[in-house]
Amino acid sequence: MQNSCVVTGGARGIGRGIAELMVARGHRVVIGDLDGWAAAATAAEVGAVAGLAQDVRDPDSHRLVAEEAARHGVLTAWFNNAGVGDDGTLASLSEDQVRRLVEVNLLGTTWGTRAALAAFGAGGGDVVNVASLAGLGPVPGYSMYAATKAAVVSLSMSVDAETPRGVRVHALCPDGVDTAMLAAQDPDGIGSQLTWSGGAILEVADVAQAAVALVGSRRVVRTVPTWRGGVARSAALAPGVMQHAAGVFAAQGRRAMRRRSRD
């Protein structure tokens, strides 16, 4: 029997890139997305076996996509990719935005991880949680987003230590990625400016490849690019420094955005 996998938030962006790569590897891929029509269309375009409407905030939605995957093969990989990226300081975010960030980014990943662990067979499998470089250090302007991604990293490390050896849980922490989520953020916000200050914005294909490369590996946390992980962790050791350096980095980001708009 063939292997199957689940990709949440798979209708576009990083999720679509992951789905394409997993299809190419021979997996029977089930795509879940809040936009069910887009999920079905993407599934048809990339050769996935199914595209379903899925609200990751609902634990039952994960069980349903797991059942669909089981109909097509042995579930061996699950990518918790669905996420939202509301930017803004904690004081400026609405209560609905805060709740959405926690429910989609953290609880959605939690329910997906639980569903995957329950659905893996005796041979085990891999859970890849798409977190963010923002989850590894202080990022003003992304405080609530960063908090949810830090929790995803912690969840991944802890659950990986809880599971038997045949089950592996990973957290992927990319820097800024050229997606609709990034494009929708406020260019005048310090969070966006700091993202653009870190060098070239990543391409979707690079992040999707890094996510798929974690399958079968024992690596628990991977940053993309690797060198940025060291920078983020160093900032976490001295968070007060970021308060003073943020203005300098934000100015670099504004210049990078202006160059991008001229290209």
UniProtKB/TrEMBL annotation:
Keyword list, A-Z: Oxidoreductase
Matches recorded under InterPro entries: KR_dom (IPR057326), NAD(P)-bd_dom_sf (IPR036291), SDR_fam (IPR002347)
Domain Ketoreductase: 3-167
Similarity comment text for this entry: Belongs to the short-chain dehydrogenases/reductases (SDR) family.
Protein name per UniProt: Short-chain dehydrogenase
